[in-house]
């Protein structure tokens, strides 16, 4: 069987995961509650997981129904943090 040809400009899921990983947006392994999305976003901006979750929920309440789309989309797009790896952008949680 012939493999489908891939265009030079086609973006694959691995390309998206690499882009997110380079920018420090990964789903964390430690401190995760469901998928690690909020904890990963919090780490990226320098927040502890619980304040990041609360902020994420408050932001999603501004646009009704957005949580149905945004959280699963981030769950799919954000790669899982490699086991034992250091965060791409070390951030101290706010006191």
Outline the structure in words.
The chain has 4 helices and no strands. With 95 residues, the protein is mostly helical. Helix 2 packs across helix 3. The model has no long low-confidence stretch (mean pLDDT 74).
Q: Beta-strand percentage?
A: under 5%
Give the helices and strands as they follow along the chain.
HHHH
| Quaternary structure classification | single chain
Work out the helix count: 4
Sheet having the most strands = none
Strand tally: 0
Shape: globular
Content-based structural category: mainly alpha
Q: Provide the gyration radius in Å.
A: 16 Å
Report helical residue fraction.
Answer: 40-55%
- Whole-Å distance between the termini? 59 Å
Q: Would you identify the regions where 5 or more consecutive residues have pLDDT less than 50?
A: none
Mean pLDDT equals 74
Helix and strand topology:
Elements: H1 13-22, H2 37-45, H3 49-62, H4 66-77
Helix pairs in contact: 2-3
Features:
95 residues, mainly alpha, 4 helices, 47% helix, 0% strand
């Amino acid at each position: 069987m012939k493999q489908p040809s891939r265009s030079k400009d086609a973006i694959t899921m691995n390309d998206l995961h690499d882009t997110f990983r380079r920018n420090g947006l990964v789903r964390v392994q430690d401190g995760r509650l469901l998928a690690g999305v909020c904890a990963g976003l919090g780490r990226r901006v320098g927040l502890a997981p619980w304040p990041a979750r609360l902020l994420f929920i408050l932001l999603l309440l501004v646009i009704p129904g957005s949580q149905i789309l945004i959280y699963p989309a981030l769950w799919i797009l954000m790669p899982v943090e490699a086991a034992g790896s250091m965060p791409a952008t070390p951030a101290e949680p706010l006191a």
